[in-house]
Recover the amino acids of this structure.
């Protein structure tokens, strides 16, 4: 069945953001549904140049990681395999895509394979729940940090954050689940799928200068390796604080990996913690940063806002895409008082 073009463009824009690609998403007033940007006309590229630019077996590059992220979004590759290296697992996923699309299963990324992957990602992307999107700031390297708004204005504000550390990519798929599917009711939901776009592109934990975003907030900050030269020295820290101060949520849910647990260290709302633990099937765990946490986002928010922030950690092995986008996203929504409508 032919899918209307505006829906396809909106789905593609969300998916591209989650895959760490450079996509320009227009801002607009709260409550508005901005029109999808018109695609730029592609520059002419020769067949030889296009073939040489395509990721290939044995290669390690950001282009390979981008390919892997698209394969993950299409449900063809496990989320922990976005290593940037085109090895046997990636080639097997490409071959599976090619067989499904009726192409020669060579494992080589051709132009036809690339188009087939676009269609597979689109088919795996549900209708959008959000009605507003905005750039809340930029990273140190100039990449946009974007927030999506869904749900009902006037209801309790909830924020879901993911990819604070660039190599911790699983949480963005829960974020994607909240941005897709049936409309959200009962909460005024903001979703920031990628807080550290520079790190995501490079599969790197740190911000520019080796700063850990989750050690740079002005609460019990101490100078040590990766905390930055001073509190709030990182541009991404400023962006996060400014956004959370503005929307002032009742709940903040922050996704990490690979320590597997719903954090009980310094927990501010135990009932929220227990609802998340039960719904996600993840046990509570004291994630105390090897003794005491300094400069964390949750610590700062809980000390300076009336609302409650909490950390959830997935393990080192990803759950299925269907689980993360479906059951886990809905478990978070239920725990914070929302529902699908």
């Amino acid at each position: 069945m032919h899918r209307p073009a505006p829906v396809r463009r909106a789905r593609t824009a969300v998916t591209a953001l989650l895959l760490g690609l450079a996509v320009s998403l227009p801002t607009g007033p709260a409550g508005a549904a901005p029109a999808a940007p018109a695609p730029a006309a592609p520059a002419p590229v020769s067949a030889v140049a296009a073939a040489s630019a395509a990721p290939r077996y044995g290669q390690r590059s950001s282009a390979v990681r981008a390919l892997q992220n698209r394969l993950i979004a299409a449900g063809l590759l496990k989320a922990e395999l976005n290593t940037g290296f085109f090895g046997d697992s990636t080639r097997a996923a490409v071959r599976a895509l090619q067989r499904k699309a009726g192409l020669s299963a060579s494992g080589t990324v051709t132009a036809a394979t690339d188009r087939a992957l676009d269609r597979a990602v689109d088919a795996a992307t549900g209708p959008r729940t959000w009605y507003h999107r905005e750039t809340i700031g930029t990273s140190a390297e100039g990449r946009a940090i974007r927030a999506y708004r869904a749900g009902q204005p006037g209801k309790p504000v909830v924020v879901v954050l993911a990819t604070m550390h660039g190599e911790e990519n699983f949480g963005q798929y829960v974020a994607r689940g909240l941005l897709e599917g049936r409309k959200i009711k009962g909460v005024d939901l903001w979703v920031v799928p990628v807080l550290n776009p520079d790190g995501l592109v490079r599969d790197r934990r740190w911000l520019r200068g080796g700063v850990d975003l989750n050690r740079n907030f002005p609460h019990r900050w101490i100078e040590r390796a990766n905390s930055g030269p001073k509190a709030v020295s990182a541009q991404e820290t400023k962006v996060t604080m400014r956004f959370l101060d503005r929307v002032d949520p009742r709940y903040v849910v922050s996704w990490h990996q690979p320590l597997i647990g719903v954090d009980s260290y310094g927990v501010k709302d135990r009932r929220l913690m227990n609802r998340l633990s039960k719904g996600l099937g993840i046990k509570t765990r004291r994630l105390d940063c090897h003794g005491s946490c300094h400069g964390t986002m949750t610590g700062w928010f809980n000390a300076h806002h009336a609302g409650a922030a909490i950390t959830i950690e997935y393990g080192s092995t990803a759950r299925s895409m269907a689980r993360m986008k479906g059951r886990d996203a809905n478990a978070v929504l239920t725990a914070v008082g929302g529902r699908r409508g």
User: Anything to note?
Assistant: Residues 321-335 form the longest helix (15 residues). The two ends are 25 Å apart (CA to CA).
